[in-house]
Amino acid sequence: MSDIVDAAKRLLVGRPVRSDNLGHTLLPKRIALPVFASDALSSVAYAPDEILLTLTIAGLGAAIISPWVGLAVVVVLVVVVTSYRQNVHAYPSGGGDYEVATTNLGPRAGVAVASALLVDYVLTVAVSISSGAQYAATALPALRGHEVSFAIGLVVLLTLLNLRGVKESGTLFAIPTYLFMLGVGSMAVVGFVRFATGSLPMAESAVLDVLPEDGFEQGLMGLAGAFLVLRAFASGCAALTGVEAISNGVPAFRKPKSKNAATTLALLGGLSVTFMMSILLLAKVTNVHFAEIPAEQLTLDGVPVGEDYVQNPVLGQLAAAVFQGFPPAFYLLSAVTGLILVLAANTAFNGFPVLGSILARDGYLPRQLHTRGDRLAFSNGIVALAGGAIVLIWAFDAQVTRLIQLYIVGVFVSFTLSQLGMVKHWNRHLRTEPDPAARSRMVRSRTINGIGLGLTGTVLVVVLITKFSRGAWIAILAMAVIFAVMQAVRRHYDSVRDELALGPDISAARSLPSRVHAIVLFSRLHKPTMRALAYARASRPSVLEAVTVAVDPEDIPRMRADWDALELPVPLKILDSPYREITRPIVDYVRSIRRESPRDLVVVYIPEYVVGHWWEHVLHNQSALRLKSRLLYTRGVVVASVPWQLESSVEVAHRQGDDA
Amino acid sequence: MSDIVDAAKRLLVGRPVRSDNLGHTLLPKRIALPVFASDALSSVAYAPDEILLTLTIAGLGAAIISPWVGLAVVVVLVVVVTSYRQNVHAYPSGGGDYEVATTNLGPRAGVAVASALLVDYVLTVAVSISSGAQYAATALPALRGHEVSFAIGLVVLLTLLNLRGVKESGTLFAIPTYLFMLGVGSMAVVGFVRFATGSLPMAESAVLDVLPEDGFEQGLMGLAGAFLVLRAFASGCAALTGVEAISNGVPAFRKPKSKNAATTLALLGGLSVTFMMSILLLAKVTNVHFAEIPAEQLTLDGVPVGEDYVQNPVLGQLAAAVFQGFPPAFYLLSAVTGLILVLAANTAFNGFPVLGSILARDGYLPRQLHTRGDRLAFSNGIVALAGGAIVLIWAFDAQVTRLIQLYIVGVFVSFTLSQLGMVKHWNRHLRTEPDPAARSRMVRSRTINGIGLGLTGTVLVVVLITKFSRGAWIAILAMAVIFAVMQAVRRHYDSVRDELALGPDISAARSLPSRVHAIVLFSRLHKPTMRALAYARASRPSVLEAVTVAVDPEDIPRMRADWDALELPVPLKILDSPYREITRPIVDYVRSIRRESPRDLVVVYIPEYVVGHWWEHVLHNQSALRLKSRLLYTRGVVVASVPWQLESSVEVAHRQGDDA
């Protein structure tokens, strides 16, 4: 199989990159901004929609307060960005929240943060790609009804791009991100100018009326109304994901890493705030009416619009209104928005494998995740991320409104623990710092992180209360499972390390077995057996025997005669097999040697076929494999595989560029 | 995983059996009859139904000729049984039709017969179990609608029983088979006595009328009518399967094997004929009306009976009529019939693995199928058979009428080729046999087999014509695929054997490598590494090096210092890894040694963890495995696995009853 896989890998992900080239894949700010910012920026494609449709549950009167909900989100965003600029400077190594929590709150908090972030990375991909698929369906109506398969196809495509490495994805993603900024920015400018001049048309949905849901006929009244506002706010907080991605990605920035990362973070915050508020305000002045279940809730002249009504995303409706009379602008903005959503998922493709690799390094995940793939990207993590996202997209039918209920719990767990860690960090440093100037900087930073802690903690509680039963429990359950698995993996590695560690007295480890008793196992007398015998003899053991198993006692005389005809200076031992088994008599024989001479080393030579095709494995080596795995349970035994390269394997070796 | 699997296996299939005990699992006639005859006998549970429902397509007038169709089946059955008594005497080794065809018609004919039989064994299980599930639903109406899952459950149960071995299944199966014989026999006797005395009631379906299908309003007229009669006959021939099972199972009989097998065959034929004709005649005199689509075809006072009507099997309807006034007899017979159908499937569980093992011995199937399992039953074949049957039951919804269209093609391919082979067999022996008495016996046998050939060939043509488009093509396709795969496997083994065979000059094979260059690979300095070093030193190679890979060049000084601290008389070689890979630098280094000294043997010692739990494999040894599989592609390299038994593995070894 490996030949096909290798060829496909080479074709799809390109040639390997040398370690020396690693510096070249570092990102300048103009590339880092689109790579890391696409996540936070792209959320304006769905966060305003979620705010509006949640408020609209209580009717049009409720939707009017949407800019105030947006403002609350903006406040949180500004505070979080300011707080994280402290993190980026204090912990520039890319461990991000995981490192902050581990260092200041202990390893359990670190693993908790890591579990939360891993889950949220997967959700970032699922939400962004699902939303992207919806925008694509806006521009290409032929895609309607195929959003799930389209979204899964996009994830697969992103996976392949990322297996090629960071640099190329960066360049590839810069152009559409800048186009998106340009598009939304000019829409906002043109929109407000037309509004100021009184020439801004109404949105397409302005003519529709809205039926509030049961219990909200009076609008936002009482506890239920307050709860609804909180839910809208919690959904809007999706705009905050992506902030932590930068703090995890500091090492990917060019030097000075921390400064560049902090600047990028500030830029990102400013753009996010501007876009979010612009969209909510324009939506208000153009009377965008946006509902969770448009077919039932939206009415025209008192009659529900029905299943045929296509509710375009808020951004699309705004573009249509603002650029009325110039349709290409609408299509262009839809296309670029769909594209940037796909690219937003890429943020997770940058962050997830880095975090996974750090966790593997620390022994919380299987060690092979720490090894870099051919292409300097952490292939295993990329594949795991893509798999998780595909499952979510498939399970939730690529519906953003359902997926968003699972989202951002993880990010706010991480925000809160990280800010708590930062407060402890400054406390610790303040205990030892004598310089008053440095102390006052630290106190200022601590104040910022303290405010961040208070605010993110509050938002976390709001998110948990408003979303738990609507899906957030799934995310929390996933975090708990990942947390438990990572703790178990770490405990296992720790106990193995203790078991294997060299004690203070290594003389025992240095003592050698007294003699070597070599056994060549064979089933037939053919070239591989001859090679195994030759190799065994070349290593000049103290004792050398050829051993075979007689399943049928009637075969013994012929076997002995064939052996004698070869005239080899090696005695033949034929083992009885009353149960017509191969493995057990050999294992028993090896153990009997060990019992008789416990200080001897037994080396068992097994001729093994090296095959070129996966199906040949089915036809060969089955007993050798079984035998080997059983023999290894016995102490003092070494199993030496003597390969015989079948002709088919030589081809494979050549194709792999090896000169066998 | 192996610990769980082993424990479950021990629990479900019992302890292993010694070869010496093999004689004890041989079957006396009184056990052999039920074991092998259940297949042929049980077909009276569905073959008469299929004859009736096929004829009923042309209306009730057509169904009247059912005993004549039954008589035609009986004629074929008598001829085939008589023919096979010759086979059993001439070929007592259990190769059955496969051996007869291979010996007399060549290996391709043998493989063709084997493919046909393998497919038909699977169908025997599928048809019998599906019919059994229908009888079970007759007795337990709660099962209705769950026939598929019930049938699959039965297959799984049978699989487990058969993994326990032949003997126990035999005893287990004898009682119900004898009960079935008693039940059907007494039903026939009571029925005919009541008919003679005029006290036999009508069947429950006698009051119903039947609508013929389109085109058959005139009854059995013209070509279509003749075709329908042939189709009914072809379905009735299902009664013949099971005959060849005895000829494949001769070695399982007690001595004198051939005589006992032939006697069992004659008994089976007699019982089959009697039961079949009794049921068809009783069905005629009690006016059983039986249709393919009862809801539409059966009418009461001109109105179709609809989906609510439950059409009981013919045997059930007869039992209800014959034992009217004594309901327990009806339930008992239904239960026993359901049971014997399940047991009929067991015939295939006896025959299929034996045939598979013979084919594996001859190189047509992967060699591991030839190895007996722990329990003297051929576990691999049993599992393969069960898998195939489950797929069929699931795909055809456990409907006998649909499955029967695929059935018996294989058996008649096998019958025909086998009889042709027997004719050739006698011709060959007649050429050399001088004794007139023996010659006349041979001529007589040849005549019998010749008649068998003519008749089975005709039936094969009839079956193909009437059933091809209704499903037989699936069976034929499966046979063709199996045939092709088996030929390919054999070709592969042949070419490997030629590639590996020792030539006339074996001096080259006897020449030894000049020196041994040993390499101990390690990633960390812990006990497993120390053990690998000790073992490598104990084998006193010409050159010995410890080799490790430096993924990060900054680690090199520390690695060297750690090594020096151990004060081992072994030089350390640290390999550079510009691509941060482990495998490639090592493979390249080993090849460079081979290039410099092509006559040296390179022995690579790899410390390997022996783990006790399947999940530990995910956490350990991944790089060792990858490395090993790559190193084996290089000539002149031996890979020696030095096991380190982790504590968890020691437990496993103990549980397996091994004293490690």
Question: What's the end-to-end separation of chain A, in Å?
Answer: 19 Å
* Largest interface, chains and sizes: A-B, 89 and 89 residues
User: Biggest β-sheet of chain A: count, sense, barrel?
Assistant: 5 strands, parallel
Task: Tell me the radius of gyration of chain A.
Answer: 33 Å
Proportion of beta-strand residues of chain A: 5-15%
Number of helices of chain A: 27
Shape of chain A: elongated
Q: Roughly what is the average pLDDT of chain A, rounded to an integer?
A: 84
Number of strands of chain A: 8
Kindly report the oligomeric state of this protein. Answer: homodimer
Low-confidence stretches of chain A: 1-5, 7-24, 373-377
Q: What is the spatial order of strands in the main beta sheet of chain A? A: 6-5-4-7-8
> What is the structural class of chain A?
alpha/beta
What share of residues of chain A is helical? 55-70%
Write the SSE topology.
Two copies of one chain form a homodimer.
Chain A: H1 2-13, H2 29-42, H3 47-56, H4 60-63, H5 66-90, H6 96-105, H7 107-139, H8 147-163, H9 166-196, E1 209-210, H10 222-236, H11 243-248, H12 257-285, H13 294-297, E2 298-300, E3 303-304, H14 314-322, H15 327-361, H16 379-395, H17 400-403, H18 409-432, H19 436-467, H20 472-500, H21 507-510, E4 516-521, H22 527-538, E5 543-550, H23 556-566, E6 572-576, H24 583-596, E7 601-610, H25 614-619, H26 622-631, E8 637-645, H27 647-655
Helix pairs in contact in A: 2-9, 2-12, 2-15, 3-10, 5-10, 5-12, 5-18, 5-19, 6-7, 6-18, 7-8, 7-15, 7-16, 7-18, 7-20, 8-15, 8-16, 9-12, 9-15, 10-19, 14-15, 15-16, 18-19, 24-26
